[in-house]
Amino acid sequence: MNKYPMFFKASSESPVGIQTSWETKALSQAQGIRMSIPVEFDGPGDGFSPEDLYVMALQSCFVATFKVFAEKSKLTYGSLRVESKLAVDRDEGGRPWMARCTFKVHLEGCQQIENAKRILARASESCMILNSVNTEKVFEFYVS
């Protein structure tokens, strides 16, 4: 049984200027990742952007949740591939925000197609990170 609350920590250190990259590190990991402001916001785009990490977090949480549900349900499949697209837009007040994320989910090599679709839908509704954000989530499931 998991104990709540759980805590996850990260750190960043950055030089001055929007054209400089920096490192962000999860304190549970030995290695950090290179970050930068994306070219869409006049940065160099030579590292992961916060927007990249956002869409990757949404996608990875879905994948992790599906994997747990599939294993507990004894669902067998060959591979899971997810392609995600994040739309950054402005809200009614003109503030930029993460408006919508579309997930194209391909589950291949699956014999239990109807069961797989139920588990995919359940995972899309149960992921804690997806449930923690106001971004519109759109899922397209392709099971074969």
Please describe what this structure looks like.
- The protein is an alpha+beta fold.
- The protein folds into two domains: 12-41, no CATH class; 50-143, GMP Synthetase, Chain A, domain 3 (2-Layer Sandwich).
- The chain contains two helices and six strands; from the N terminus they run βββαββαβ.
- It has a three-stranded antiparallel beta sheet with strand order 1-2-3, with no helix packed on it. Strands 4-5-6 form a three-stranded mixed beta sheet, covered by helices on one side.
- A hairpin with a 6-residue loop joins strand 2 and strand 3.
- The mean pLDDT is 96.
CATH architecture of the largest domain: 2-Layer Sandwich
Strand order of the largest sheet: 1-2-3
- The CATH topology assignment of the largest domain is GMP Synthetase, Chain A, domain 3
The share of residues in helices is 25-40%
Cα-to-Cα separation, first versus last residue: 34 Å
User: What is the H/E order?
Assistant: EEEHEEHE
SSE blueprint:
Blueprint (H helix, E strand, L loop, with lengths): L9 E4 L8 E5 L6 E3 L14 H23 L6 E12 L5 E13 L4 H14 L9 E8 L1
Parallel strand pairs: 5-6
Antiparallel strand pairs: 1-2, 2-3, 4-5
What attributes does this structure have?
144 residues; alpha+beta; GMP Synthetase, Chain A, domain 3; 2 domains; three-stranded mixed β-sheet; 2 helices
Concise overview:
By secondary structure, the chain is α+β, with helices and mostly antiparallel strands. Helices cover 26% and strands 31% of the residues.
